[in-house]
């Protein structure tokens, strides 16, 4: 076993499971119902925020009960760290969003800097309405704007460094089938 695999197995062994797989699945189903009710007649353009939004988007898409045009973009500011830095656009969206309702899907709203920047980008590129959906909203008062919330939130989770269901620890464990907090963080 490589040192990295051993380290990552230890991270999981020592982590606290904050939300189990069943609870996450229930939250995603609720998100899908709410999004379907709100957007089924709006022909939204959905953007998955890579990388973290990958798993939520995949699972959500199959539960949305209307025809969805799904695209992706990639913006990152945590990289291999547990605190956020400057937002870097790795891939700006190519799809024409002029006059469209846009739905941005990501794993987590932590400080909200990432979602605010993406929403601003979409508005600047002609989107008439920008809505946001996240699996997790972290409970703290360090939001980019006071009281900032996503339009659709699956779960509220305590202020720890999380991994699982799209969220990584040093690039690993996005695949963990629940939401975990790293020991001591
Ligand atoms: O609300 P914020 O404090 O801005 O943080 C949230 C963002 O952080 C994570 O992305 P990250 O920068 O780790 O990139 P990744 O998804 O490619 O891992 C996550 O996927 C969100 O996009
Ligand atoms: N993996 C991960 N990414 C984040 N981005 C912002 N907050 C978090 C977090 O708690 N975990």
From TrEMBL:
Organism: Marinobacter salinexigens
GO molecular function: guanine phosphoribosyltransferase activity; hypoxanthine phosphoribosyltransferase activity; magnesium ion binding
UniProt cross-references to SUPFAM superfamilies, sorted A to Z: PRTase-like
GO cellular component, one term: cytosol
EC number: 2.4.2.8
Main EC class the enzyme belongs to: transferase
NCBIfam families in UniProt: PRK09162.1
Protein name: Hypoxanthine-guanine phosphoribosyltransferase
């Amino acid at each position: 076993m490589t040192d990295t695999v051993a380290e990552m197995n230890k991270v999981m062994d020592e982590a606290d499971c904050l939300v189990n797989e069943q609870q996450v699945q229930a939250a995603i189903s609720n998100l899908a119902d709410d999004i379907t009710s709100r957007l089924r007649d709006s022909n939204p353009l959905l953007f998955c925020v890579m990388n973290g939004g990958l798993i939520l988007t995949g699972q959500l898409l199959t539960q949305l009960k209307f025809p969805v045009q799904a695209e992706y973009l990639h913006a990152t500011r945590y990289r291999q760290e547990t605190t956020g830095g400057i937002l870097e656009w790795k891939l700006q969206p190519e799809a024409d969003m002029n006059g469209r309702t846009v739905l941005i899907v990501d794993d987590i709203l932590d400080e909200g800097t990432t979602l605010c920047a993406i929403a601003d980008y979409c508005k600047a590129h002609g989107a008439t309405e920008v809505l946001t959906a996240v699996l997790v909203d972290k409970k703290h008062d360090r939001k980019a704007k006071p009281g900032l919330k996503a339009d659709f939130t699956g779960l509220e989770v305590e202020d720890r460094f999380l991994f699982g269901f799209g969220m990584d620890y040093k690039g690993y464990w996005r695949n963990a089938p629940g939401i975990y907090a790293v020991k001591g963080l």
